[in-house]
Amino acid sequence: MEKESFLDTNVIYNYSNYHAQSKEIIKKCYFYIHDKKGRFVVCGAVLEELQEIIKKIARIHKAITKKIEDQNYSFEDNPLISKRDIPFAKQIYEKFKELELKKLSYELAKERDMSRIIIDKFLKTKIDEKIIPIEQIDNKLVSKIHDIISNHADCKILSSALQLQKERETFLFVTADGKDLNPNGYNYLKEHFNINYTKEKYKFPELFNLMFVN
């Protein structure tokens, strides 16, 4: 029997952006979902983050349009774009900078709409269960994870996975995060919990990081 897959946000978002020329990690995410094996589970924190990503992409696209209109416009001066998203904004700008403004707006809007439609369809047709609504997240557990992982959204998702794992057979935590949730980082987090929270006996799901599998 196939193990359940608890899906991280990045896997779903990458899946929604797949096309024939996609980067390898996007292809891996797409085919993991397309060739579905076992049950798929998502948590409330992932659903919330997907909505935030869609809004964030809209802000980045708006900034790119401004940059096309005015070459002196700086992404660094935009308070609505985080520092870590600036390289991504510049990458998209380089891809589209030769386009006429009307065509650019159309292409960016089409990209956003397609992604949103694919995510909506995915949630309706591929997901077997939605678990741990936002209000049921254990904030004390989030805080414990946050001591090691700086990204608060990741902490809420991982907390949800640990809460679910208490009552389930070991499932797969499926991610495409090469930074905080790489195998070494995940093992370090498990060791940290084993040493510092022995009494709680936290059980971790099995990491399945698509950045590190063939």
In words, what does this structure look like?
The protein is of the alpha/beta class and 214 residues long. The chain has one domain (5-212): Rossmann fold (3-Layer(aba) Sandwich), CATH 3.40.50.1010. It is 55% helix and 8% strand. It has 8 helices and 5 strands, in the order βααβαααβααβαβ. It has helices spanning 9-16, 24-34, 44-69, 86-96, 101-125, 139-146, 152-165, 183-196, and strands at 5-7, 40-43, 129-131, 172-175, 206-209. Strands 3-2-1-4-5 form a 5-stranded parallel β-sheet. Helix 8 links the parallel strand 4 and strand 5. Helix 1 (9-16) crosses helix 2 (24-34).
In terms of topology, how is this protein built?
Elements: E1 5-7, H1 9-16, H2 24-34, E2 40-43, H3 44-69, H4 86-96, H5 101-125, E3 129-131, H6 139-146, H7 152-165, E4 172-175, H8 183-196, E5 206-209
Parallel strand pairs: 1-2, 1-4, 2-3, 4-5
Shape field? globular
Tally of individual domains? 1
The amount of helix comes to: 40-55%
Quick one: CATH superfamily?
5'-nuclease
* Portion in strands: 5-15%
- Total helical elements: 8
Per CATH, which architecture? Answer: 3-Layer(aba) Sandwich
Summarize the helix and strand pattern as letters. EHHEHHHEHHEHE
Number of strands: 5
The strand line-up of the biggest sheet is 3-2-1-4-5
* Terminal Cα span: 22 Å
